[in-house]
Design a protein that fits this description.
7 helices
Amino acid sequence: MDRIERAITKILRPKLAEHGFELSKKWDCFVRKQNSGEDSFVVVNQGTAKGAGKFYEINCFADVRHERVELPWNTLGMVYGEDQMHTWTLQYKPRERHLPPMTVSLTSVEADVEHVAGQLADLLDHSEKVFYPRFADLKEVEEWVNKNPLADTNPTAGGAIEHLAMRALILAKLVNPPRYAAVREAFLALEKGMFPRERRMAMLQRVDEMSL
């Protein structure tokens, strides 16, 4: 966490605490434990400002983690070590793409940090209405992810296509087994991905054989 993120986090902390989130210094984000796993709210400085007129661009992400998905997903070798404890099942970008970026200028850091913190508080409130409650239900997660298999959506179940596909398959197997074949077919139709085809097929076989 850099100095800009720390300054914003300091202002946001009481607001997040009202919603049951605690700052995790280990993961550099706010975390709220749930029976199914955990919720996270992440503040990110996406750039380094250098020179006059430059600014830092700030963004945020809302995550839900379902242990029933992440425990089997993390056996597939895409994340290692302690990072397996903090993978997310679904990630939401509450800031709409058409809006101007949230920025902190080098010439007005203190005022901009206050302003951005207020914007982030509003995005938290928005996420509490449309994201966290809905996707606490694993059936809602599966329906969202698999109604159009492997589509690029917000919220998303993964950035890299293999991350998304393996979660989609595990979700179908857990929640909606009749849909598993359609998700599997969409994965097999992929021409390329982050990993070589041989490795992708090995992961697919692992998921095929899982008893969830």
